[in-house]
Design brief:
about 60 residues; two-stranded antiparallel sheet; 1 helix; about 5% strand
Length: about 60
Amino acid sequence: MNQTYPGAFLDSVRYVCIASKAVYGQRWRTWFTYNSYQLTSGEGATWGDGITPIAAPI
């Protein structure tokens, strides 16, 4: 558990990771989002929350 959520581990708390399909990364329309997704997962043209893609590696 501490590897998945480092520094946020308490035995009494149940942690959940939630992904959002809010913004699709497009090179020319949403360049900031596209670049953020590309840096995070290697693919810019994908869905995410505008900063982190759904397919972000753990």
